[in-house]
Design brief:
heterodimer; A: alpha+beta; Aldehyde Oxidoreductase, domain 3; 4-stranded mixed β-sheet; 4-stranded antiparallel β-sheet; 4 helices; 33% strand; B: 81 residues; Ubiquitin-like (UB roll); 5-stranded mixed β-sheet; 3 helices; globular
């Protein structure tokens, strides 16, 4: 990669965002940095399986720790793979079905690093960033339980 | 020090944050003190396997030292992404 490595861009916000607009902006920044490959992931609020219907989701976070945890995760990705720029955007507060929750984007000279770094970011975001999801449905409210599979997913990054 | 609670731990205890005067040397000792306070604390801290702790905003273990620590937070496993 010919460009300089930039600090990861970390955004933690309650407001909805337009994934297309965020991606356009990131693409321009990646192009300037000399990247040849760009990977992005967007998470959306979806209805839950079963009879109940999701009205909305509430995400709580730990102000201060959230930003530092996301920065550490992004910096770790930038140490393991030749990726720059790196973006993590995560919302908190109230969000409705079909709205975007979060987004990560990575750019690199070649696709392999960009894919791996994005995958790594998502695995770590799931269980190492201080966010907690609560689902408000027609049947009541419930905190989303962490999955064993999410914790297990972290192991593959320490095996090589 | 400040003790913070998030998600269902916050709901069970009833406050997001409180100032705690303690001589506890470790997180575990702090948990034991809090458990002894009132039923709502005993309930929140009933199963430590269901809890995670951050010490000065870094994920930590329950045997971590509290020497010089300003902030301890208790919460369930995180569900970001």
């Amino acid at each position: 990669m010919s460009g300089k490595r930039s600090a990861p861009e970390i955004r933690v916000q309650p407001a909805p965002f337009d994934p297309g607009a965020v991606l356009s902006e990131f693409t321009a920044k990646a192009a300037l940095a000399g990247a040849g490959a760009l990977v992005s992931f967007t998470g959306l609020v979806r209805d839950i399986p079963g009879a109940e219907t999701l009205d909305h989701m509430e995400i709580e976070h730990y102000p201060g720790m959230t930003e530092s945890a996301l920065t550490s995760i992004a910096e770790e990705a930038m140490t393991r793979w030749a990726v720059s720029p790196v973006l993590i955007l995560h919302r908190f507060g109230t969000m409705r079905p079909e709205e975007p929750i979060m987004m990560v984007a990575t750019a690199s000279a070649h696709r392999q690093d960009a894919f791996l770094a994005a995958d790594f970011l998502m695995d770590y975001l799931k269980s190492r960033a201080p966010f907690w999801k609560k689902e408000v449905t027609t049947g009541g409210t419930a905190w989303v339980a962490a999955k064993d599979s999410d914790e297990h997913a972290l192991k593959r990054w320490s095996e090589d | 020090m400040d003790v913070l609670y998030f998600a269902w731990v916050r709901e069970r205890i009833g406050v997001p944050k409180e100032r705690v005067q303690t001589s506890a040397a470790t997180v575990q000792e702090l948990v034991a003190e809090l458990r002894g306070r009132e039923e709502r604390y005993a309930l929140a801290f009933a199963d430590l396997d269901a809890l995670r702790v951050a010490v000065d905003q870094e994920l930590s273990e329950f045997d971590a030292s509290l020497a010089g620590v300003r902030e301890v937070a208790f919460f369930p496993p995180m569900t970001g992404g």
